[in-house]
Amino acid sequence: MNGKSLLQKLTEKRVSTWNILFKKPWPYWFGGVLLAVVNIIYFAISGEIWSITSGFARLGAWIISLFGVNVETWEAWQYYQYNLPWLDNNSWSNLGIIIGALIAILLAGQFKLKKIKNKKQIITVLIGGWLMGYGARIAIGCNIGGLYTALASLALNGWLYLPFIILGIYFGSKVLIKLINY
Amino acid sequence: MDKYLDCTGEPCPLPLIKTEKEMNKLKIGDKLFIELDHTCSMTNIPEWARKKNYEVETEEVDFGEWQITITKTN
Amino acid sequence: MKRQEFRQKSNWQLIFALIIIIFSIYIYLYLNNSVEINLATSWAFGLIVGFILQRSRICFTAALRDPFLFGLTKLSRALILSTIIITIGFAYIQYQQQLGGLPIEGKFVPLGWHIPIGAFIFGLGAAVSGGCASGTLIRLGEGYKLQWIVIVGFIAGSVHGSYDASFWYQLIRSQKSTHLPQLLGWGNALALQIIFLLLLYLLSYWWEKHKF
Fold first, then answer.
1. What confidence tens digit (pLDDT) does each residue in A90-114 have?
2. Which residues form the domain of C179?
3. What ipTM describes this predicted complex?
4. Quick check: A113 contacting B, CB < 8 Å?
5. For A119, nearest residue in chain B (alpha carbons)
């Protein structure tokens, strides 16, 4: 016995298992493998394929339809069907992702409402968000539906998407570095 | 001269860009303290520093807030 | 000292997590029993994906950016590995669909200039707002106030893009199928894609060695 009782040792072991599972970040490759497996199961049991931004388009279209805009006749819906947000798979999976991440960070005990540093940031990210939404609708897909699950479906459009999203991110990062002028 | 960097509220990749620039200015043996609250930078800054063979220490200072200490060893 | 004290107070986060988990299960059961099973599946899928992405810190923007900005490719390689696995799984399901005489499902978009232009604009936005589509959702869950603004812009931009669709979709060049197996045959398509992904993996590995 070197100073520690069996009970102490057991508690320590429990704490370290908890830390590995819920506190320390998982290795990237482990997350990547799980992500692929979960997506395959989802496709197999529901016939749905993961995508994000078409859900945003439906949600936004529904919101402006409340103000009397006739959204259902838009040509866009020929490429991705119009649904009411609460009857839309993408809206539910989007909400799920937010809540899933919240559960994960709470279990890690690292949740905190994180502040915004300055006003310039607000303008930058508002424009950035707008560009993302607009771009994703033009290309009919974001980094998930246009790239990840497109490549998964052996679709040529995924390969066309890849070099240009990389270019966009590269130039965007250069702009951001210029903006902060550090 | 040790240097303190406050990166709270800054999204990826800004903390790592600043870290890279500051580390280049430091002399061997100096330390850089980075305070941040971005989970993504919390993984890629230590990864980058270890690749550079610098000494890295991380400490959680508050809920979801960390301090990374990098010692320039080469 | 603040630094030691906060650790003992983190129990409320656990309790909060448990309440949300119970609530999420309740929503799942409600959707499953009274609305539509597929919506319940999507909800559960979202929860699991959000959990995995937060836990493993996977960020698609970083994977596509860090190799070029910093020479870090660990995350990119993990996502290439992920793409190889998902390709095999999806190909198997699609093949079964074809054998069963069902329409083959997948994310097929007719080719044209709208894809490069849209992808480039999306990339620009993702870089300046600190996260792509999945990253934005994860960070909303993690409590970043900045992402509340991103999501407002994101949804507004999506509607704007859908509204302008009739203009942009004039750029569509061909309505032909983009499904590689229909163009090249199953064996060739699958082999080509996986070999190409493996090459990308090796290239990233070599790139990181070269950079450090």
1. 999 999 999 999 999 999 988 989 8
2. 59-211
3. 0.94
4. no
5. B9
